[in-house]
Amino acid sequence: MISVEDWAEVRRLHFAEGLGIKTIARRLGIARNTVRAAVRSAEPPSYQRQGPGSRVDAFEGQIRDLLKEFPEMAATVIAERIGWEHGITVLRDRVRELRPLFVAPDPAQRTSYRPGELAQWDLWQPDVEIPLGFGRSDKLWVVAGVSGFSRLIGAWMVPTRAGHDVLGAMNQVLGQFGAVPRTAVWDQEGCIGQWRRGEQVLTEATHAYGGSLGMGFRLCEAADPEAKGVVERANGYFETSFLPGRSFDDIADFNRQLVAWLTKRANVRIHATTRVRPAEAIFEDRGSMLTLPASMPDVAWRHSIRLPRDHYVRVETNDYSVNPRFVGRRVDITLTLDEVVVTCDGTEVARHRRCLASHQTILAADHARVLRQMRIEARVVDAAADGDHGVEVRDLAIYDRIAS
User: Fold this and answer.
1) pLDDT over 60 (residue 110)
2) How far apart are CA 318 and CA 7, in angstroms?
3) Average pLDDT in the 254-275 region?
4) What per-residue string of b and e applies to 181-202 under the rule 16 or more CB within 10 Å gives b?
5) What is the reported pLDDT for 323?
6) How far apart are CA 155 and CA 143, in angstroms?
7) What is the pTM of this model?
8) Alpha helices in 87-190, H assignment, sequence order
9) Is the pLDDT score of 165 beyond 80?
């Protein structure tokens, strides 16, 4: 076979120098038929050695018959059916080559988004322990949202996956967007909604939230990660570019660092797909989004109980003190992302920073002072009551007289 160098020289002499076939063959010492073939071929010559064959070749007909009837049959099962007694790797490679002939193709679709059309949402759990206080730490969740058109990323860490926390984080992310996309695309998270009997069923809190903003919700089908690949890639971006080399004091510190990174790094880079900076593209996005309301929807968790004698209310697994002067009265508890607030007939009777550690008792200093004051007042009242009734003091000498 002629070498690539000789092939190139033959074509140069023929096309550039105008030499004939015989002259080129004589000059280079190459057969004339070889020169003719080089002149006709626009592709450089390549040598491909024919393979020695494979043990699988004798079984290929049986493999095709099985795949024709059962396209998804595993290679290990095929090995059993055809009596394969050799290494599984070579058989698995041949099955991998043949299977596409019997399985309908599933091409990926490149999706484009219109401005303001939608944002994709997901829960991402960083592989890092976040200090919770009281010597505890745990891996928490981040609500991530990405606008489809601009690719602007927003995110906020939450204490739990409960609906009030997730929707509260959505408030934070929409604030980072500066507007409200027309549709929110979610997985089938229990706090958001599920597919049931072919219909999308949202939770009552999700319905209320979307209705307040005028934003629709669309849930992905099961096992369909491509439906929200934009936010899935953002999660991977967090893993590779945000987490490495960082440490966090608490959940608030995590959110401070995350928002700073999004603002100064992630959203000002040139996006690999759109070739535009998300922080610049968001302005066109906002033009077609819904207006961000002056007051975001109230998604706090609420509960009402009668304050027990120990003047504590239990929220999640923690007990929070309440002004003891309101014992026996009905109080309303409000839990937000950051605080636990207790009111009685519109009067605030307790406000605590939310404790993320579990099974803790939180006593406010002013409630302890009120409790001490109430005890002093109670002793004074008891002493006054004793004085009014003239409690008799027995003469102990009577016992001496009895003994004598």
Assistant:
1) no
2) 83
3) 95
4) bbebbbbebebbbeeeeeeeeb
5) 96
6) 6
7) 0.69
8) 88-98, 163-177
9) yes
In Å, how far from its chain's centre is CA 278? Answer: 20
Name the helix (H) or strand (E) containing 387.
helix 365-389
C-beta of residue 211 within 8 angstroms of C-beta of residue 146: no
The token pair that represents 27 in the structure block: 């000059």
How far apart (Å, rounded) are the C-alpha atoms in residues 70 and 68?
Answer: 6
Q: Smallest Cα–Cα separation from 144: which of 164, 118, 166, 114?
A: 166
* Percentage helix, strand, coil for the chain under 3-state DSSP, each rounded to 5: 45, 20, 40
**Are the C-beta atoms of residues 281 and 323 closer than 8 Å to each other?**
no
279 backbone dihedrals φ, ψ, rounded to 5°:
-65, -20
DSSP string, 283-320: HHHHHHSBPPPSS-----EEEEEEPPTT-EEEETTEEE
Give just the sign of the alpha carbon dihedral 382, 387, 389, 394: positive
Helices then strands, counting H and E runs in the chain, come out as 13, 16
Sheet strand arrangement including 347-353: 301-306, 330-335, 339-344, 347-353
Between the alpha carbon of residue 214 and those of residues 78, 288, 382, the distances in Å are: 54, 13, 61
End-to-end CA distance of the chain: 142
Mean pLDDT of 251-263: 97
Q: Give the 3-state secondary structure of residue 83.
A: coil
